[in-house]
Write a structure and sequence with these properties.
Layout: E1 16-21, H1 25-35, E2 41-46, H2 52-59, E3 63-67, H3 75-84, E4 93-97, H4 102-111, E5 115-118, H5 123-169, H6 179-196, E6 200-207, H7 210-217, H8 219-236, E7 243-248, E8 251-257, H9 261-277, E9 293-300, H10 309-324, E10 330-332
Parallel strand pairs: 1-2, 1-3, 3-4, 4-5, 9-10
Antiparallel strand pairs: 6-8, 6-9, 7-8
Helix pairs in contact: 7-8, 8-9
């Protein structure tokens, strides 16, 4: 008999599957005949209590009819076993007993049974109980399946949104943050530094003689150089709050929260040395045989009401000075006093 799949599609009454666990073959046959009057109910019989759990896992019943008194493993022990197995813990269990005993009934419900019948109940009552508990179980499974599908959909939507956000914030060539996100991040960190009364550092970086590099080696090689520079900046700016970004063209920037002028200078020098250490041949460079960068930096504690653009302007002036002085160097400037 085909195993019911409770996680797929709309479930109907043809999905009902009854598992009877009873050591008396006569009871098994009587239950089979009673249930056979309803063509929408499937039936499986297990006479060996030692194999009951395995039978339940294989048949995936929508209701278990469990006899209480059996040789070896008793019915209440099996009820507790069913409840301990994730696959079976929600399956309705109807305990079958030889007589109505309040203490036995109470023990059955305590063990995890859903219902209690004195065997053998008449056919109408048996089928009614089976249908009722099976419908409840199937509805529960449908809700669980719908919830899981919803959770998967929500997770996929979250992952898609995160990817879209990453693409929106990223430079397509280098993978660094783009100019738009740089502006947003700088503004946010500027406001944070103003609140916390801490310093905020910034490095502006320009690839020396990059137009000459493109003219000599072509734009494809030029793009590869920009990617290598970006990878180096990302590796060096490795504190959680540091942000490396492509500012535009061959210009890059690094936002350095809680960094003093001395710390900005040290990081700028490290970036400059590591780019030079890449030993990317640049025959058209005015600074030497390999590709180099010029770096301008600054650090300041924001004054109340001051704009973050003042930090960019100061770092940009320092970068201009570094290029004017011969390139391949780091210059640290000061933020102009607010007028």
């Amino acid at each position: 008999m085909m195993e019911p799949d409770l996680d797929q599609g709309a479930m109907d009454e043809t999905r009902i599957m009854v598992l009877l666990v009873d050591d008396q073959a006569m009871i098994g046959e009587a239950v089979r005949r009673a249930l056979s009057t309803d063509e929408n109910i499937g039936f499986h019989y297990c006479s060996d209590p030692e194999k009951a759990v395995q039978a339940a896992e294989l048949t995936r019943p929508t209701v278990i009819l469990q006899d209480l008194v059996m040789p070896g493993t008793d019915g209440l022990t099996l009820v507790r076993k069913y409840r301990s197995i994730p696959l079976l813990r929600d399956v309705p269990i109807i305990v079958l007993s030889t007589k109505e005993e309040p203490a036995v009934k109470s023990a059955s419900f305590t063990a995890g049974a859903n219902d209690y019948l004195v065997k053998l109940p008449d056919t109408i009552e048996l089928i009614a109980r089976v249908r009722y508990h099976s419908r409840s179980y199937i509805n529960l499974q449908q809700r669980d399946a719908a919830y899981r599908a919803l959770r998967r959909s929500q997770q996929q939507l979250l992952e898609t949104n995160l990817e879209l956000q990453r693409l929106t914030h990223s430079d397509g060539l280098t993978g660094l943050s783009n100019r738009r996100y740089f502006d947003e991040y700088l503004q946010a960190e500027w406001r944070r530094a103003e609140r916390d009364r801490t310093e905020l550092g910034l490095l502006m970086i320009d690839v020396d003689n990059f137009k000459s590099y493109n003219d000599t080696y072509g734009h494809v090689r030029g793009d590869e150089v920009l990617k290598q520079v970006a990878t180096t900046l990302q590796r060096v700016a490795n504190r959680p709050a540091d942000l490396a970004a492509r500012f535009g063209g061959e210009e890059f920037a690094i936002v350095l929260p809680a960094a003093s002028s001395g710390g900005v200078r040290l990081l700028g020098e490290r970036v400059r040395r590591e780019i030079e250490a890449l030993a990317l041949v640049h025959e058209g460079s005015s600074t030497g045989p390999v590709l180099t960068i010029s770096v301008g930096g600054t650090s300041a504690q924001p004054e109340p009401g001051a704009l973050a653009t003042r930090l960019v302007e100061a770092a940009d002036r320092a970068l201009y000075q570094a290029k004017h002085e011969g390139r391949n160097r780091v210059v640290i400037g000061q933020v102009a006093a607010q007028g």
